[in-house]
Amino acid sequence: MSSKQNELSASYVLKSDHDLSIPCPLCKDRRALALGDIDEAITERLSGMRGVTDLLIDVPMIDAEQGSVAQAAYVLRGLIDEVVEMYRVMSQGSDEKGCRMPMQ
């Protein structure tokens, strides 16, 4: 059996209930996280990004102060950083278990 056949596909890992022992992206504590939990956290952050982006789009209409716009941008940056960190630890956790996407 080739190594390609031994690897689990990413779709199998995401659909399974396997837990991975990976650092929590937010508290940095090492604990078992279900991939569904990470998916839920990423979805929440993406929804938050959408809300902040909608607010920034409306800035000209609401005549917001420059400090308020900067604060919204910092919130958006923080949400982006959290999602990037979640993807990073999720991909490392998958690699640790040998659950990589098959090469094409």
Can you put this structure into words, describing what you see?
The chain is mainly alpha-helical. It has one domain. 65% of the residues lie in helices and 10% in strands. It has a two-stranded antiparallel ribbon with strand order 1-2. Helix 3 packs antiparallel against helix 5. The N terminus and C terminus are likely disordered.
Any chance you could write out the topology, listing elements then pairs?
Blueprint (H helix, E strand, L loop, with lengths): L2 H4 L3 H6 L3 E5 L6 E5 H23 L1 H4 L3 H31 L8
Antiparallel strand pairs: 1-2
Strand order of the biggest β-sheet: 1-2
Global outline: elongated
Q: Give the helix tally.
A: 5
Kindly provide the radius of gyration, computed on alpha-carbon positions and rounded to a whole number of angstroms. 18 Å
Order of helices and strands: HHEEHHH
Concise synopsis of the structure shown:
The chain is 65% helix and 10% strand. The protein has helices at 3-6, 10-15, 35-57, 59-62, 66-96; strands at 19-23, 30-34.
